[in-house]
UniProtKB/TrEMBL annotation:
Name of this chain's protein: GTP 3',8-cyclase
Lineage: Bacteria, Bacillati, Bacillota, Clostridia, Eubacteriales
Enzyme class: lyase
Coiled-coil residue spans: none
Listed Pfam families: Mob_synth_C (PF06463), Radical_SAM (PF04055)
The gene coding this protein: moaA
UniProt keyword GTP-binding, yes or no: yes
Binding partners and assembly: Monomer and homodimer.
Cofactor note: Binds 2 [4Fe-4S] clusters. Binds 1 [4Fe-4S] cluster coordinated with 3 cysteines and an exchangeable S-adenosyl-L-methionine and 1 [4Fe-4S] cluster coordinated with 3 cysteines and the GTP-derived substrate.
Domain Radical SAM core intervals: 4-219
Residues given in the record as [4Fe-4S] cluster 2 binding sites: 254, 257, 271
Length: 325
């Protein structure tokens, strides 16, 4: 399906829960956030109707995110439901990885195709500081579990933060030499980050690329390892994996935006950075079927902004984990 700017919209990001087992400083304020009541969160059968409706009008890729999607009990049941929907050819998960080891097999058996794992530092003290209490070894075990299960590609998301982990980008990129890992360095976005912590922390991708090239040699443009996201990929000479960059700030990719978001409370959000939303929960709970929901999805697509206006500041009182990252 096309939006008003001739962009093909075929990717639905679904936030399955607003809760999380971490409290990353760039994602949640220090005081934490108030979680919504369970009954406000869409049930699996409701999400299934939304995906069936989306598939009927051209959505092909689904990504489950959150909050932390693995905190949602029985996630494999949702994956199984989605993998049975004709037209959906990719089901992926974005996770902090901590809960992956015990669930990886059941998720894969249910139809999960790919995982992207947040991994911002190689230093356990820093990891604890960034996540406010997480254990780095747990995230690494999640990555190993994903590789051992045979997921391909396994992508890592590294948000680069000045004065925090910008001195680690070379060591993190080096991981791709020996392991089939696809690291994406992400520009820090000013999302819900009115706190002082965020100020002056942005590092442009070009600077990250220079740091890597100076130490590890040329970055050779590489084929996109499966996916629907906006990263641009490169390979270090002889590397098994790739190094990618997500340049939301320095060179936004809105003109090729292909996505819609479904919040955990059942609103469709046409653009990450625009507070406009279309409610699906009330219609679903009033008995709307696939046709009615498909019409509402089309309405949301027609409301998609041409591009984000991040420099104007965050216009929402919620943060990334509440909207769905
Ligand atoms: N500007 C912008 N950035 C986004 C959007 N969605 C995700 N991101 C950023 O991209 C990062 C990576 O997102 P992932 O959840 O791993 O998904 P992806 O890159 O679309 O996934 P692939 O299909 O594997 O390419 C996130 O951590 C965000 O920082 C979006 O809609 N707009
Ligand atoms: C909100 S999290 C949800 C999924 C899961 N809990 C995780 O951490 O992967 C999704 C992604 O958003 C990214 N993210 C959160 N806040 C961000 C910000 N201010 N700028 C850029 N990326 C951000 C995280 O690094 C993570 O890769
Ligand atoms: S980035 Fe992911 S793991 Fe960290 S607080 Fe946000 S939702 Fe949780
Ligand atoms: S900021 Fe909005 S328009 Fe730009 S890529 Fe993200 S969702 Fe699409």
């Amino acid at each position: 399906m096309q939006d008003n700017y001739q962009r093909e919209i075929n990717y639905l990001r679904i936030s399955v829960i607003d809760r999380c087992n971490l409290r990353c400083v760039y994602c949640m304020p220090p005081e934490g956030v108030k979680f919504v009541d369970h009954k406000e969160i869409l049930r699996f059968e409701e999400i299934e109707i939304v995906v069936r409706a989306a598939a009927s009008i051209g959505v092909k890729k689904v990504r489950l995110t959150g909050g932390e999607p693995l905190v949602r009990k029985g996630l494999e049941n949702l994956i199984r439901r989605i993998s049975n929907i004709p037209g959906i050819d990719d089901i992926a998960l974005t996770t902090n990885g901590l809960l992956l080891p015990p669930h990886v097999q059941v998720l894969q058996d249910a139809g999960l195709k790919r995982v992207n794992i947040s991994f911002d530092t190689l230093d356990s003290e820093r990891y604890r500081e960034l996540t406010r209490f997480g254990e780095l070894s747990g995230a690494w075990e999640g990555i190993v579990a994903a590789l051992d299960a045979g997921f391909h590609p396994v992508k890592l998301n590294t948000v680069v933060i000045r004065g925090f982990n910008d001195d680690e980008v070379v060591d993190i990129a080096r991981l791709t030499l020996k392991k089939p890992l696809h690291i994406r360095f992400i520009e820090f976005m000013p999302i819900g980050s009115s706190n002082a912590w965020a100020t002056g922390r942005f590092v442009p991708a070009e600077e990250i690329m220079s740091l890597i090239k100076n130490k590890l040699g040329p970055l050779i443009p590489a084929k996109i390892p499966a996916g629907s996201g906006p990263a641009k990929y490169y390979r270090l000479k002889g590397a098994q994996g790739t190094v990618g960059f997500i340049t939301s700030m320095s060179e936004h990719f809105c003109s090729s935006c292909n996505r819609l978001r479904l919040t955990s409370t059942g609103s469709l959000r046409p653009c990450l950075y625009d507070s406009c939303e279309v409610d699906l929960k009330a219609p679903l709970r009033n008995g709307a079927g696939i046709k009615e929901i498909a019409a509402l999805i089309k309405k949301a697509v027609s409301l998609k902004a041409d591009q984000h206006h991040m420099l104007d500041g965050w216009q929402d009182n919620r943060v990334m984990s509440q909207i769905g990252g």
